[in-house]
Amino acid sequence: MSLDGWAEESFTAAGLTRQTFRKGTGPGVVVVHEVPGITPAVLAFAEEVVAAGFTVVMPSLLGTPGRAPSTLYGMSSMFKVCISREFSTWAMNRTSPVIGYLRAVARHLHDDVGGPGVGAIGMCFSGGFALAMMVDETIAAPVLSQPSLPLPIGKARAANLGLSPDDALVVAERATAGCPVMGLRFTGDKLVGTRFATLRTLLGDRFVAVEFPSAHKTDHSVVTEQRQQEGVDRVLSFFRSRLLPAA
Length: 247
Known about the structure:
- There is one protein chain.
- This protein is of the alpha/beta class.
- It contains eight helices and eight strands.
- It has a single domain, classed as Alpha/Beta hydrolase fold, catalytic domain (Rossmann fold, 3-Layer(aba) Sandwich).
- It has an eight-stranded mixed β-sheet, sandwiched between helices.
- The radius of gyration is 16 Å and the shape is globular.
- The model has no long low-confidence stretch (mean pLDDT 96).
């Protein structure tokens, strides 16, 4: 699947400049890709969000947009995640610096298309980013798919959400005020660790968990490589309910 039909531009904010790809009409949704980058499966998911009636913006944070995944490509991208200062790969209780950029992307999109707010979904290394983006009130529909940072080495990291204490407080306050958070995972995915338990403690019944039994040890990417149609449908329904209230 190619990026034909997607408008490419360079967007600068918070000291970072990255490519972004945009398509669609209607309220905005920011789709943040997983490792190794904007793969054909990520693009296929983004096309479904567009078809559901949304304007999608995909920032390219890693890799070559449109390139298919491979073992070597995945390892190379993961190495960049581990050494980049943009991502808090190991640190606990710290919001990744790239979040400032993603919040700016969401604000820019909302200013352009309007609506009650913007949706955001992160996957894998970016899975928790939608939660951190929620500190900005522009984000009205945050979705965490297999959140995997900080890397779950040890029990403390496996439970950590990758949020500063101040950001965690704001997230909890927004949830209490009425903004739900959706999370998706395979139950046997060790990269997710025990973060869903942490999310339930932080957010209470405002956390909507969508969980699938693991058929294989490698099951990880709920809406892309190991796609679960029910999961995709639940995400689209969540975006509709939050961003298209009249529907």
